[in-house]
């Protein structure tokens, strides 16, 4: 199902995790109803912008909204991060892609770093709802770059935070956290 309707691509809320990473909640009721973990949308800010694929990090079917996390890395992503509440996107198409395979595996480790936390959040949610024990490893270079910790913690049985410089959680990279879990207990599935 795709959606490309004026007056339905409005930015409802916006917050910055850092100078270059923004979270946008966008009015998109048809996408919110049909999205699954792993789906993405194609966004075009205006008629001069390139098409950007962005993973849907969350959806609220009651409010008819989807949540996108955008890292400012080029002209179009900078335009998107500069948009304000009430502004409308030129195009929003989705959900697209193949949904993540969600089953009841048992104990699952979900590993993510930096803005990779955004596409991991719906996977963690879906795995938890499927009855899994979910251990999330959340990593970044520094504490300031850790995003969505509270949201991931809400759906995780355990969360391990790793930072390269040790400014939050344990010092080390994401794979160190994964290795710690694998060494201490039986893991039935690892998702990245």
Q: What's the CATH topology label of the largest domain?
A: Elongation Factor Tu (Ef-tu), domain 3
The 3D shape can be described as globular
Number of helical segments?
5
Q: Biggest sheet: strands, sense, closure?
A: 6 strands, antiparallel
Helix/strand order = EEHEEEHEEHEHEEHE
Provide the CATH top-level class of the largest domain: Mainly Beta
Number of structural units classed as domains: 2
- Decide which structural class fits the backbone: alpha/beta
Tell me the CATH architecture of the largest domain. Beta Barrel
CATH superfamily of the largest domain: Translation factors
- Percent strand: 35-45%
Radius of gyration equals: 17 Å
Low-confidence stretches: 1-6
Helix content: 10-25%
The whole-number mean of residue pLDDT values reads 91
| Order of the strands making up the biggest sheet | 1-2-5-4-3-6
The total strand number stands at 11
Question: How is this structure best described in words?
Answer:
By secondary structure, the chain is of the alpha/beta class. It has two domains: 11-96, Beta Barrel (Elongation Factor Tu (Ef-tu), domain 3), CATH 2.40.30.10; 107-191, Rossmann fold. It contains five helices and eleven strands; from the N terminus they run E-E-H-E-E-E-H-E-E-H-E-H-E-E-H-E. The strands form two sheets. Strands 1-2-5-4-3-6 form a six-stranded antiparallel sheet. It has a five-stranded parallel sheet with strand order 10-9-8-7-11, sandwiched between helices. Helix 3 packs parallel to helix 4. The longest helix has 13 residues, at 117-129. It starts with 10 loop residues before the first strand and ends with a strand.
């Amino acid at each position: 199902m795709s959606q490309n309707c004026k007056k339905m691509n409005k930015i409802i809320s916006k917050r910055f995790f850092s100078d270059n990473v923004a979270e946008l909640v966008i009015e998109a009721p048809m996408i919110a109803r049909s999205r699954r973990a792993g789906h993405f949308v194609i966004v075009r800010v205006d008629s001069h912008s390139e098409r950007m694929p962005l993973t849907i990090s969350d959806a609220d079917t009651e409010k008819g909204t989807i949540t996108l996390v955008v890292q400012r890395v080029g002209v179009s992503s900078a335009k998107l991060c500069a948009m304000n509440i009430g502004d409308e996107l030129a195009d929003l198409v989705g959900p697209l892609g193949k949904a993540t395979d969600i089953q009841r595996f048992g104990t699952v480790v979900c590993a993510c770093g930096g803005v990779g936390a955004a596409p991991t959040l719906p996977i963690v949610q879906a795995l938890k709802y499927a009855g899994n024990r979910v251990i999330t490893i959340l990593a970044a270079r520094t504490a300031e770059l850790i995003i969505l910790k509270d949201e991931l913690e809400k759906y995780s049985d355990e969360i391990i935070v790793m930072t390269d410089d040790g400014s939050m959680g344990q010092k080390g990279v994401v794979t160190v956290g994964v290795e710690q879990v694998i060494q201490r207990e039986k893991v039935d599935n690892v998702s990245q």
